[in-house]
Each structure stands twice: as C-alpha cells, then as structure tokens.
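[Meeting: bench + compute handoff]

Bench side (C.D.) handed over the final construct sequence. Compute side (W.E.) agreed to return the predicted structure before the next meeting so the bench team could plan truncations. Sequence as handed over:
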Amino acid sequence: MSNTDYKSTWETVNSNLQEIERLLAQGKYNSVMVKSRQTLEYMVRALADRACIVDGDLSQMIDELYNGNWISKETMEHYHQLRLIGTKAVNEGYASATDANRCHQILSQESHIFSHTPQRRRQTASNTRSTGSAGTTRRRRKKKTGTDLLVAYALRVVIPLVILILIIFLATRLVKVFSGDKESTDPSQSISTDASVPSSADISLDTTEPSSEPETPPAAAVTMYRAITTVNVRPEPNTATDRIGKLSTNDTVEFVRDYDDSWVVVKYNGQEAYVAKQYLVPVTE
C-alpha cells in the first residue's frame, strides 16, 4: 500500500469517527455500534493488505495480524470487542448507551494507533543477506559475551572489595567512638572552669535594614497544546454533550489543567472548556 493510499485510508477512518460522534450526540446508539464495526473492518482489511494476509473472516484476520506482530495484544482485544458489539447490533438491533460510548472510546484510541502504525516492507531472502545477518548475529553474541564477563568480574571482585572497604571504615569509626567515651570518663582529667565570655568588642550589631521591597514572583509560563487531528471542544467532559466548537489539525489552545486521564481543561474563546486528551500534544519550542 503506497503512502497516498494509506493517507486516503486514514482520512476515511477519521471521517467515520466524526460521523460516529455525531450519531452518539443524537442518541442513535445502534447506528454508532454498526458504524464502529464497519470502520473496524475497514481498518483491519487495510492492515491485512499491508501484511499480505488473505482476505477472509474478520475474526481470523484480527488474530493473524496479532500473530504477525502487526498489532499489540491490547489492540487485538479491542478489535474483538468492537467486532462482537457491532455484530450484536447488526443481527439483533442491539442499542445500549454504555456500549455505544465504549465503542466510540475504543475506536478513538485505536484509530490514533492505526494512524501511527509504520509501514513494513516485505523482505526477500538471499544468500548474501543470510550471510550478513549471520555475521551480525555472531558479532552481537561476542559483544554480549564480553558484557557478561565484565558483569561477572564486577560481582566477584569489585563488589566484595567495596564491602570490605565499608567494613573497615565502620570499624574505624566505632573505635574512635569508644575511645572518645573512655577519655571523657577519665577522672584524672582536669575540668577547666574558665568560661570564655565574649567582650563587647567581639559583639557586633547588624544594623542593616532588610529590604522592604517584596520579590516579584516569576510569571507563570503558559503551556500550549496542539491538536493532532480535528477534535471537538465541549463544555463538559462528556461526549454526549453538544460541542461548543472544534479544533482543526495543528490548531493550538492554551492548557489550563488535567481533568482526568481522558480529558484536559483548556482556554477556548475566553472560557474553560474540555477536549479529549488523546488528540492533543504539548507544543515544544
């Protein structure tokens, strides 16, 4: 799959995700789950095409993508959840607000991961590459063996030596402590009664008046966040509420604070609003 085709695939997934958000806001929960399954199937078939997996059953393709290290175990489990909920919505007319919101949450997370999945090239075997790979493996093994020897040397020589030095140091300190106690209890020692009293010449009065000007605290730095895709701005941290605006890709907004693991509070048109955290990244200078 070329970069152009992959970009077109991601644009389709992003468009479907916006449609799902619209359906969710309208309370069309069955349509949300059906659309989520359709988007999942579109993503899986796109990945299967890149992985050279034969087109077939959705469940089998998900498992083959995981076995081929194209997706993680967590992504595989999310894909199966979307598949099962979507199938139930298609076959039984199932409509649940909880599962609809769950589908939207999972699809939002996995679509972001899907957009950053690196393209892999099919490797061709040849005698030259096999020889090069074998040589590289032998060099790595030699390097690993040398590291193991260094660690073994440290365990056998350096660590016992450090422990011995610590024991000697502690023993010396204990001897000094006990010797000092013995000398302090010796009755033959004379007690000096000449108390050293400072004279008036030795006493100096600090007449410097403290500065009455308060230190100006440094101005707090303003943190800006950038949208990595088109994302809605909402008055509450809930996708069921109507949006009050939206951020386009690369739009920046002032960060106020984290609300929880999924939402952040930002300054939008002079007021505080909420944006899904997964679609924002800090702006670095």
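W.E. noted at the follow-up: The longest strand covers residues 252-258. C.D. will use this when planning the next construct.
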